Amino acid sequence: MAKVVAVKFKKGCKPYYFSAGKITPEKGQGVVVETAKGLEYAVVVDPERDVDDGAIVSPLKPIIRIATEKDEAQVRRNEERRGEAMRICKEKIEKHDLQMKLVDCEFSFDGNKVTFSFSAEGRVDFRELVKDLASVFHVRIELRQIGARDETRLLGGIAPCGRACCCAGSMSDFRRVSIKMAKNQGLSLNPGKVSGLCGRLMCCLSYENDYYAEAYKQMPKIGGTVGTPEGKGTVCSTNMLSMTVRVRIEKDGATVYRDFPISDLKFKKNAESDKDDGED
Q1: Of these four, 9, 222, 224, 253, which has the most CB atoms within 10 Å of its CB?
Q2: How many alpha carbons lie under 13 Å from residue 170 in its C-beta half-sphere?
Q3: Integer Cα distance of 108 and 156 in angstroms
Q4: Is 185 helix (H, G, I), strand (E, B) or coil?
């Protein structure tokens, strides 16, 4: 185990680990750190964290200094420049008639580079756009094409559950999700019911998948025949939280519905034979 300082960069939920050296930062304090891109500003989320050696990329880069008033002012200036940079870039995109949607822009800490993130259906030839932007800003210009999930992560929004999108508010990394996870949980396979704002499968499908995958294997198939203490019947629905099954039984010329715990039923368990569907 190694003792490290966990920091987060702007618009990101993933913590990154740095060596504090002789610096003793506090939680919530701004710091300047050395990265592969140069010096960057970050905020401390945990001033002292024990992390497995395998989770650290060696050599661990250091925290250069606690952010000074000058550093904080630089960060504010970069943020103030963002709105105007977005406006100019949108105008240039329209001028060059490019089929791309500008999503975000971000200035490097030293202000010598600006990165524009955009989404598009296919490849975009933006070479002339880069030249045009460079003549306006007189700094290095980087255009980065992102996918639907990254676009939603940057823009944020309210998910179908009524909470902020997981990718924008609480997830450090995208998790792999598949349609089989929705099947395991007995959810409607209607795309409108299992898709997030990005149009892809909701990230939260993966949260309880391990439990539902095991529970699914213990359950009979909907429409299948099971043996019950009251005779044979047909499975109408299953509840994988209470591990009960609703069964339709034809009894004495009448149709009755009964809920049984799976321990009271006799049936062939679901085989884990369904091929895993890929990410939507």
Answers
A1: 9
A2: 9
A3: 22
A4: coil
